Amino acid sequence: MRSLELVLDPDSDAAVRAAWDALTAADLPSLGRSGTNDPHVTLAAGDALPVPEGFDAAVPTTLRLGGLLLFPAGAGRSVLVRAVVVDPVLAAFHAAVHRRAPGAVETSLPGGWSPHVTFARRVRDEDLPAAVAALRATPLPETLTVGGVRHWDGETKTVTPVA
């Protein structure tokens, strides 16, 4: 799978990693355990997404966070995320990404996309209260600052900066 992602500036990246660390310290699932993941917001994902050569819309400079969300991850488990609010700048850039890099899966297309920052995958239902408590103890800022755009090739484990 390949993806195009917004990455965060160093301060916002550190804030998300602090939340990951809080989950790890509470002995809960956390993306901080992966060792290879960086905080990001996926814009497009697909098996053959090309590396775009540019965009016809401005890259957002900030991302406003919404509430905690749960995505299904199998019986009795969830992916724990914070929503990212889609404002006009983010919506325009997201559409521009798909004009330059066609072939994305339906859930990352305009109209089907739920932008988010992921904290943990496969959190058991019984661990959700502890996970929420850990995240409340390490609050994120209301707004995260964008540090750039990257193309991720999961097959070759290659990151290509694109903006």
What can you see in these coordinates?
The chain has 163 residues and is of the alpha+beta class. It contains three helices and seven strands, in the order βαβββαβαββ. Strands 1, 2, 3, 4, 5, 6 and 7 form a seven-stranded antiparallel β-sheet that branches. β6 and β7 form a beta hairpin. The chain is globular and about 45 Å long. The protein starts with a strand and ends with a strand. The mean pLDDT is 95.
Question: What is the helix content?
Answer: 10-25%
Most strands sheet: 7 strands, antiparallel
Could you tell me the radius of gyration in angstroms? 15 Å
Instruction: Please state roughly what percent of the residues sit in beta strands, choosing from under 5%, 5-15%, 15-25%, 25-35%, 35-45% or over 45%.
Output: 25-35%
Taking the alpha carbons of the first and last residues, their distance comes to 20 Å
Shape: globular
Average pLDDT works out at 95
Number of helices: 3
Unreliable segments of 5+ consecutive residues: none
How many beta strands in the DSSP annotation? 7
In terms of structural class, how would the helical and strand content be classed? alpha+beta
In N-to-C order, the SSE pattern is: EHEEEHEHEE
Topology:
Layout lengths: L1 E7 L1 H16 L14 E7 L15 E11 L4 E8 L3 H13 L15 E9 L3 H9 L6 E11 L4 E4 L2
Antiparallel strand pairs: 1-2, 1-6, 3-4, 3-6, 4-5, 6-7
